[in-house]
C-alpha cells in the first residue's frame, strides 16, 4: 500500500552541463562542429573501406566497424544535447532515459570488446605473421564481430535490469546532461549500496581489467618486434601507438566515471562530455590519419567524385 501511494517518477529533469550561458554557447558550437564535420568523416571511412578492394584485410574490417560504432554512439547523446541547449526545461521521460542508458552501454561495451579484438588481430599479425591468414580468416572475423555485439548487449542488459528493479518516487532532477547509471541510481528511493557495488563490478572493474590487459598485450607486441627489421619495427610501432592512443581515450574517462563509488565530482560532467560526444567522433579519425592505405584510398574516392 505504501508503494502504491508513492509518486511514481515518469520523467527526469536534466540539470544540463552548466548554468553559464557563455559556456553553454561555447559547448554548443564545439559539439555542433564535431557533429557536422567529423561525423560525416566517419561515414566516409566506412564507405572507403567497403568500396576499396585493396582494403579487405581484417584490420580494415574492424576499423570500419569501429567507425560505425562510434558514429552510432555519437547519436545517443549529442543530438538531444544540442536540442536541450536551446530549451529552458530539459526533460526526458523515464522510458527515454532507460533507452538512452541501454544504447549507451550497449555500444560502449561493444566498442570495448572491439578494441580487444583489434589488439588480438595485431598480436597475430605482428607476432605470428605466417599463421595470420589462417587464424584471422573471414569466418573468425565475423565470429569475433558477433561476439562483440553479444558482449555489448549482455553488459548493457545487466545495467538496465538493475535499474528497472529500483523504485523511483522522487526527486526526479538528474544532475547531468544525459542519462547514465551513477546519476540515475542516486534518485532511487531505496538503499542502493548493493546495486552500486554490482554496477562498479559490471562497468568499473571490467573496464579497468580490459584496460590493463590491452596495455599488457601491446607491451608484449612491442617486445616481440624489438629485434625485427627496421621497416617492420616502424610499421608495428605506428600501428600500436595508434591503438594505445585510442585505448587511453576510450578507457581513461570510463575508468574515472565507473571505477569509484557513485559520488558526484565537479569534473564528472566535463569528463562525460568528452567520453560521450568528443572522443567517439575522433577515434576513427585518429586511426585514419595514421594509416597511409586508408588515406590514399579516401583521396582517390574524393577525387573521383569531385571530377564527376
Helix content: over 70%
Order of helices and strands: HEHHEHHHEHHHHH
Mean pLDDT: 84
- Note the gap between the termini: 71 Å
What's the alpha carbon Rg, rounded to whole Å?
A: 21 Å
Largest sheet: 3 strands, mixed
Question: Biggest sheet: strands side by side, in what order?
Answer: 2-1-3
How many H/I helical runs?
11
Strand content: under 5%
Give the overall shape: globular
> Which stretches of 5+ consecutive residues score pLDDT under 50?
1-6
Q: Assign the structural class, choosing from mainly alpha, mainly beta, alpha/beta, alpha+beta, or little secondary structure.
A: mainly alpha
The number of E-state strands comes to: 3
Name some characteristics of this structure.
308 residues, mainly alpha, three-stranded mixed sheet, 11 helices, disordered N terminus
Summarize the structure.
With 308 residues, the protein is mainly alpha-helical.
What does it look like?
With 308 residues, the chain is mainly α. It is 75% helix and 3% strand. The protein contains eleven helices and three strands; from the N terminus they run H-E-H-H-E-H-H-H-E-H-H-H-H-H. The chain has helices spanning 2-5, 21-51, 58-85, 94-127, 132-135, 138-164, 181-185, 193-224, 230-258, 268-289, 292-307; strands at 11-14, 91-93, 173-174. A three-stranded mixed beta sheet has the order 2-1-3. Helix 3 runs antiparallel to helix 4 (94-127). The longest helix is centred in the middle third of the chain and has 34 residues, at 94-127. It is globular and about 65 Å long. Mean pLDDT is 84; it is low at 1-6.
